[in-house]
Amino acid sequence: MPLPLGFTGARLDRADQLRTNEAAFAAALADPRATCLALDGIDFVPGEGGGLRWQPLDPADERAPILLGIDEAGAPRFVREAAAGVRVDARSRTVMRLLPLLSTEEAALYGGARSLVDWHARHRYCAVCGSPTVLIRGGWGRRCGNCNAEHFPRVDPVVIMLAEYGDRVLVGRQPGFPPRFFSALAGFVEPGESLEEAVARELFEEAGIHVSEVTYVASQPWPFPSSLMIGCRAVATGAALTLDTTEIEAAMWVDRAEVHAALAGDMGAPFMAPPPLAIARYLLEDWVG
């Protein structure tokens, strides 16, 4: 990969050693270089230059601080959990129009912070006994005040794949996509299956095709709310499609010239390609190349 995929490439030491050392964590909070990421709910607040806005830690702010890590200059970076009662809609993609303002590294920092803030907002109560939980490990976990059960942020694995047949690949669209927008098919990995099995199952369920082999290409964090997109290719045994219309509104096989036109933004292309931040676009670019 010549360039990092979207939401990857953060040059930040996650500083795991500070998460369990109360004295070291307190020292990081008191460090005059420490800054906190400014958020509006769960969306970032653009700075003067259009990037992320980092603010000094406000000691009067009662929201718990979450340690993102230590930057290359040795300064601690934090984000605060959402205030109690504030609704966090982490599946909202309204921030997508602002993401082009961020550098690759800033998008990665924001993506991780966004996923953490969302996770804490959804885990204020224990999944075991229902009692309130509190932050532990510098914001990388929560503990129940009643049964002492510990809970940690989770990542949801999602396979996203291009099925190949001859010199064509399969792209599809969901009902909520913008007009002309097509992408790679995708789906969550289910308990008890491998990535290869998930790819084969999703392609059969959504498009009615069987595949003979699956290969891994690349992966990408996707903070809507907290997925790990696992990019793959698969070789289809046939071209006939049977769509699950509850999931896929339309699908089609496209050749290299058509994919190249879509990536170039040609309005004469048969579809509109995914945006640069999405791994679906990288999969198409990698296939064309």
UniProtKB/TrEMBL annotation:
Oxidoreductase recorded as keyword: no
EC number: 3.6.1.22
Top EC class, one word: hydrolase
Entries under Pfam families matching the protein: NUDIX, Zn_ribbon_NUD
Cofactor: Zn(2+); Mg(2+)
InterPro entries: NAD-cap_RNA_hydrolase_NudC, NudC-like_C, Nudix_hydrolase, NUDIX_hydrolase-like_dom_sf, NUDIX_hydrolase_CS, NUDIX_hydrolase_dom, Znr_NADH_PPase
Swiss-Prot/TrEMBL keywords: Hydrolase, Magnesium, Metal-binding, NAD
Keyword Cytoplasm: no
One Gene Ontology MF term: metal ion binding
CDD domains xrefs: NUDIX_NADH_pyrophosphatase_Nudt13 (cd03429)
Domain Nudix hydrolase: 153-285
PROSITE patterns (UniProt xref): NUDIX, NUDIX_BOX
Gene Ontology biological process: NAD+ catabolic process; NADP+ catabolic process
Superkingdom assignment: Bacteria
Catalysed reaction equations from the record: a 5'-end NAD(+)-phospho-ribonucleoside in mRNA + H2O = a 5'-end phospho-adenosine-phospho-ribonucleoside in mRNA + beta-nicotinamide D-ribonucleotide + 2 H(+)
GO cellular component: cytosol
PANTHER family recorded: NAD-CAPPED RNA HYDROLASE NUDT12, NUDIX HYDROLASE, NUDC SUBFAMILY
Family membership: Belongs to the Nudix hydrolase family. NudC subfamily.
Protein name: NAD(+) diphosphatase
Species name: Sphingopyxis alaskensis (strain DSM 13593 / LMG 18877 / RB2256) (Sphingomonas alaskensis)
